[in-house]
Amino acid sequence: MISSNVNGTGSINWSEIYNRQKKKLQENFKDPVQINPNAIFANNETSLSEIDIYGFDYDYTLACYKPELHYLIFKLGQEALIQKYGYPSELINIEYCPDFAVRGCHYDVRKGLLLKLDSFHNIQLGTVYRGTKALSDEAVKTLYGGIHVSLEDMNTFYGTGPMYQLVDLFAPPEMTLLCNLTDFFMENGIPYDPEYVFHDVRSAVQGVHTSGLLHSQILADLETYLDKDSGTSDLLESLVSQGKQLFLITNSGFPFVDAGMKFLIGNHWRDLFEVIITKARKPKFFNESKRPFRIYDPQTNSESYDRVLKLSKGKIYQQGNYYMLQDMTGWYGFNVLYFGDHVYSDLADPSLKHGWRTGAIIPELEREIIRSNCLEYQQAVKWLNILQNLIENAQMDTTQDTTEIRQSWLDERKEIRNYTKSLFNAQFGSIFRTYHNPTYFSRRLARFADLYMSNVRNLLNYPIEHTFYPRRMELPHEPHV
Ligand SMILES: [Mg+2]
Prior knowledge:
globular, metal ion binding, Rossmann fold, HAD-like_sf, hydrolase, 5'-nucleotidase activity, Pur_nucleotidase
């Protein structure tokens, strides 16, 4: 492109190239590419013909929850903060805003900021919030001495730093509550330590789960919280009818799972599974060999004291570990495909340590695909790429000073990037990408999940022998063909 000589005077007329390319795009790009929101996407080639055993997590995998669940988690978290942690009673008046946060953001407990990181640990500017108020790019760069966050500052497998990722099913209401609380303290001039507030909110919200309160409220109104039309029943019946073996590994207790599965599938649901493991303590289930299985008796709500030497169909097991499961069943490696919604505790160890094939359930995917299927989004992305090429090429032009024109293009680029971000979520954008990189969440999803999809029922759209092929990723040095 840099060799173009548009005005015939020896120098390149960049404005004319810009206008010509923009007109061409507007005239020619009218049919957006349509991606099926109910498709399955492959990070790694996966052939279902090799899969004999299908494993499932329960919550948010077989059990699809309706949006009402986040309202409930928020409300119970609010009540717990007031009643158990002594927070001001006025907090109860705050209503849950479902559109504020997205899963996978990080919270810096020392600085009290919610933000989004990319796969290089860079902060995405424009996604840093104290409470529900955005910080300017300059303020962020001053606070972090740039935009990079050191590995040592992450609270992950590698370290115990101040940067926590909120990625489980409680994340959106938990993040929103945290930010509402921060607003409350700031607006009322109440001094607070963000680290205490974070741990109090975390304990309150997680406590709603561990105390059994959340489960009891869900059980009291399954119609409101569980999506009965999610297709789970059809999928499981279909797999069994085609000779596949099924197993369940969930951290939830049997009475909760049993009520949900009876509601979703019917009283015969246990007949579909070869092995049912509850209270599994994932991710420890996959990486510790200490806890043996125990048999759970639903009649007496008690566990056996006998040593479990084999796993039998029809029985309910609790705890246990991966190594005993493999020894007792002979299931391992490429014959097993396990589905879960928690990219770390469900999928990381099965994939990295044990060689299972893995499928991630990412409910947000459906909405994001629908958004990215629109003409406005695709036109904006296409123009962004053209504009970026123009910016890159113009800076190589030594025949004239292109500083001014490039600055106006850089401003336009910033505007378009903010527009494409806001189509997914006004504050944080897509859970899968920052402006130009995959997110921290997305990079891990690509590493731990062979397949990913919005709902496990999407499997019904494919033949049982189907092979999923990943899109060939063009490396930056390879020719664009
Ligand atoms: Mg789950």
